[in-house]
């Protein structure tokens, strides 16, 4: 089959690799009809996530048709499904309490040591995302082996196009959980850093959850415009002093909740961010956390901090004092996708949530490398890339 | 000393007595020393056990105690979850004798015969290699109810003495390489198998699984 493989920083290629097979009874094989490039993939593309090996197949946002099933799969051949990027066994303690992205069994035993050393506990398995998370072949391919297929994939009705439901795999639940973790009340002012796909879905979710005001922060005019169209007020951090603006826009109290939808590769000109850029480049690996640092200072005392943005390691000059002295509450994590797929599918069906506004480019899978480069370098206008195996150039 | 601590001590000492093996007895004694000042298991102490490697790990498995015990009690089930163990054959069920075939480098194998030294239904199984084995090893697995409906706490403790002889040493290197890592992986696979019915693998094809690779290396 054809698949997008990683070969090093800024080096991804579409190559021919072995087709997947049913390996375990609960597996299914999915023939991919649509698959997207995620901001998380850019962290791999930029080489700032450890444990990626040459030849690894990337991609964790995908959907398609079931073409093969193991004896223990609950899926049927021909069924159309969206697959969560988090692999969850359904049988462990964490799955039982719906903390699916903390599944204890989906990362193979012999692969758990690396993340356990880094974080104190192993990470769960994720598709197409480093050997820290199992080293599973990903969804930017013609076919994918989906383990524990009776727990993750959600069947979708034929009248909903791929583009309406594809993002149930990751970014829609991620934006939703990002907003849910901010514990939004009706009188709240909420600030969202980053107007990428995750930030935009967090904005949309916060509005649906009834926030009085949502303020979106980025420096790309087109992305900010998308946030404004959804009903957010916007701040361009290149033009405006973000913290001062947030204080004024929240009546001098500070925003009630902040959502960091930027993650470890924040852009910015603060001195410590520039230093972090250098350190990341020379491989001493400090996460660039300038958006999060700013958010911690901007949130009101006793406020809530939600972090859907991904961080992989350590960071320098972290405003720990602000966290403690202001009495903040922090919630974060890889998304517990399986918990949200059903309710969010309903919200797509009844029109509460729209996801299609986000897609700026549709490319054949063969052009995936091109898609990565542009999603990275033309962020303003390349808001989301959907790849289609077999699509004509 | 709390009651539960005393019980644990006795359990440990019990093995040593049953074995009558001076080397393992020394290990058991060291395990006890580690218990003097705090409530942590002796195996988590910041010191070594002389020539012996001792390691222990605990996992919580969301399954009833009896089911887990029954799986472990049948040693022929264990190669599926244990690193570098090719097969375990029951030699004499009544006497609890089993023969483990363990992978050694260059396609060779080593056999270790073990005997069950203690078995408490639903709670504990302890085994050790018989006199004259190429690898001197001892293992003990215990099953305790976890709080509420969290299932069962399973603790695996393995002790071994580096063997004499080239083949024995080579096999031990594989079999007992970093015993802490091995015990952890074995227990995690046990957990995955009992909770999911599968040994988790990220292989895209059957030939890429751990089991397939293990057969290949043999
Ligand atoms: N928690 C999860 O399960 C999960 C799932 C998917 C993605 N993510 C993470 O969410 C983050 C965002 O993903 P995405 O797909 O939207 O990525 P993206 O790269 O498309 O968007 C990031 C946006 O942040 C903006 N930005 C950069 N620095 C900023 C700053 N200092 N202040 C304000 N905005 C800033 C960028 O201009 C960009 O528009 C990434 O870290 C990604 O890894 C997490
Ligand atoms: Zn993603
Ligand atoms: Zn699980």
Describe the structure.
- The complex is a heterodimer of chains A (393) and B (218).
- With 393 residues, chain A is α/β, with parallel strands linked by helices.
- Chain A has helices at 39-45, 93-96, 113-119, 162-165, 171-180, 197-208, 221-229, 242-249, 271-282, 290-298, 320-325, 337-349, 368-377, and strands at 2-8, 11-16, 28-37, 61-69, 80-83, 86-87, 125-126, 143-146, 154-155, 189-193, 213-218, 233-236, 255-260, 299-307, 329-332, 361-364, 385-388.
- In chain A, helix 6 (197-208) links the parallel strand 10 and strand 11.
- Chain B has 218 residues and is of the alpha+beta class.
- Chain B folds into two domains: 1-48, no CATH class; 51-217, START domain (Alpha-D-Glucose-1,6-Bisphosphate, Chain A, domain 4, 2-Layer Sandwich), CATH 3.30.530.20.
- Chain B contains six helices and seven strands; from the N terminus they run ααβαββββββααα.
- Chain B has helices spanning 3-19, 22-33, 65-73, 166-175, 179-196, 210-217, and strands at residues 53-61, 85-92, 97-103, 109-120, 124-129, 136-145, 152-161.
- The longest helix of chain B is centred in the C-terminal third of the chain and has 18 residues, at 179-196.
- Chain B starts with a helix and ends with a helix.
- The relative contact order of chain B is 0.16.
- The model of chain B is unreliable at 1-24 (pLDDT under 50).
- Chain A binds chain B through residues 18-21, 23-26, 57, 72, 89-93, 96, 104-113, 125, 134-137, 145, 147-148, and chain B through 60, 62, 150-151, 181, 184-186, 188-189, 191-192, 195-206, 208-210.
- Nicotinamide-adenine-dinucleotide binds at residues 38-40, 42-43, 170-171, 174, 193-199, 217-220, 223, 237, 261-263, 266-268, 290-291, 308-310, 334-335, 379 of chain A.
CATH top level class name of the largest domain in chain B = Alpha Beta
**Molecules bound to protein:** nicotinamide-adenine-dinucleotide, zinc ion
Q: Record the strand order, biggest sheet of chain B.
A: 1-7-6-5-4-3-2
Mean pLDDT of chain A: 94
Strand content of the residues of chain B, in percent? Answer: 25-35%
What is the largest interface, and how many residues per chain?
A-B, 34 and 27 residues
Sheet with most strands of chain A: 7 strands, mixed
Radius of gyration of chain B: 17 Å
Q: Give the helix/strand class of chain B.
A: alpha+beta
Q: CATH superfamily assignment of the largest domain in chain B?
A: START domain
Q: Specify the CATH architecture of the largest domain in chain A.
A: Alpha-Beta Complex
Termini separation of chain A comes to 18 Å
Roughly what is the average pLDDT of chain B, rounded to an integer? 77
What is the N-to-C succession of helices and strands of chain A? EEEHEEEHHEEEHHEHEHEHEHHEHEHEHE
Oligomeric state of shown chains? heterodimer
Terminal-residue CA separation of chain B: 49 Å
Q: Please state the second-level CATH architecture of the largest domain in chain B.
A: 2-Layer Sandwich
Indicate the low-confidence ranges of chain B by residue numbers: 1-24
Number of strands of chain A: 17
| Order of H and E elements of chain B | HHEHEEEEEEHHH
């Amino acid at each position: 089959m054809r698949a997008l493989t990683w070969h090093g920083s800024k080096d991804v290629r579409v190559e021919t690799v072995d087709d997947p097979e049913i390996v375990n009874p609960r597996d299914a094989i999915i023939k991919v009809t649509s698959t997207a490039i995620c901001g998380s993939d850019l962290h791999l593309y930029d080489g700032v996530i450890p444990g990626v090996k040459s030849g690894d197949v990337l991609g964790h946002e995908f959907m398609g048709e079931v073409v093969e099933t193991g004896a223990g799969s609950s899926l049927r051949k021909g069924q159309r499904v969206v697959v969560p990027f988090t692999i969850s066994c359904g049988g462990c303690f964490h799955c039982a309490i719906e903390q699916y992205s903390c599944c204890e069994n989906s990362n193979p035993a012999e692969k758990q040591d690396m993340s356990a050393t880094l974080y104190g506990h192993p990470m769960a398995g994720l598709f197409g995302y480093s050997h820290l998370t199992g080293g599973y072949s990903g969804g930017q391919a013609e076919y994918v082996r989906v383990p524990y297929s009776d727990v993750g994939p959600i069947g979708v009705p034929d009248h909903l196009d791929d583009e309406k439901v594809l993002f149930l795999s990751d970014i829609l639940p991620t934006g939703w959980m990002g907003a849910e973790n901010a514990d939004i009340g009706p009188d709240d002012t909420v600030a969202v850093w980053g107007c990428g796909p995750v930030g935009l879905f967090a904005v949309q979710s916060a509005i649906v959850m009834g926030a009085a005001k949502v303020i979106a922060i980025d420096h790309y005019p087109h992305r900010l415009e998308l946030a404004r169209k959804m009903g957010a007020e916007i701040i361009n951090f290149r033009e405006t002093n973000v913290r001062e603006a947030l204080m004024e826009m929240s009546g001098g109290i500070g925003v009630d909740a902040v959502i960091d939808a930027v993650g470890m590769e924040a852009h910015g000109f603060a001195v410590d961010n520039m230093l972090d850029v250098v350190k990341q480049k020379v491989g001493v690996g400090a996460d660039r956390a300038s958006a999060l640092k700013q958010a911690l200072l901007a949130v009101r005392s006793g406020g809530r901090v939600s972090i859907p943005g991904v961080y992989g390691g350590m960071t320098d000059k972290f405003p720990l004092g602000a966290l403690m002295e202001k009495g903040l509450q922090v919630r974060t994590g890889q998304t517990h996708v399986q918990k949200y797929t059903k309710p969010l599918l309903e919200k797509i069906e009844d029109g509460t949530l729209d996801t299609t506004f986000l897609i700026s480019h549709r490319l054949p899978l063969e052009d995936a490398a091109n898609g990565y480069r542009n999603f990275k370098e033309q962020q303003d206008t390349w808001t989301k890339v959907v790849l289609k195996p077999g699509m004509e150039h | 000393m709390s009651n539960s601590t005393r019980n644990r001590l006795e359990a440990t000492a019990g093995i040593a007595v049953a074995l009558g093996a001076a080397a393992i007895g020394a290990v058991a004694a060291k395990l006890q020393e580690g218990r003097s000042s705090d409530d942590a298991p002796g195996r988590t102490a910041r010191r070594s056990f002389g020539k012996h490697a001792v390691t222990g790990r605990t996992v919580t498995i969301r399954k009833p105690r009896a089911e887990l015990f029954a799986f472990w009690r049948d040693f022929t089930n264990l190669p599926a979850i244990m690193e570098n163990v090719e097969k375990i054959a029951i030699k004499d069920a009544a006497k609890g004798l089993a023969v483990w075939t363990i992978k050694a480098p260059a396609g060779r194998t080593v056999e270790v015969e073990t005997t069950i030294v203690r078995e408490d239904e639903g709670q504990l199984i302890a085994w050790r290699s018989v006199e004259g084995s190429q690898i001197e090893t001892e293992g003990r697995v215990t099953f305790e109810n976890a709080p509420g409906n969290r299932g069962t706490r399973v603790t695996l403790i393995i002790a071994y003495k580096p063997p004499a002889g080239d083949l024995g040493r080579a096999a031990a290197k594989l079999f007992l390489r970093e015993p802490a890592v091995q015990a952890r992986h074995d227990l995690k696979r046990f957990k995955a198998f009992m909770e999911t019915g599968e040994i988790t693998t990220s292989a895209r094809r059957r030939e890429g699984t751990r089991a397939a690779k293990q057969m290949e290396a043999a």
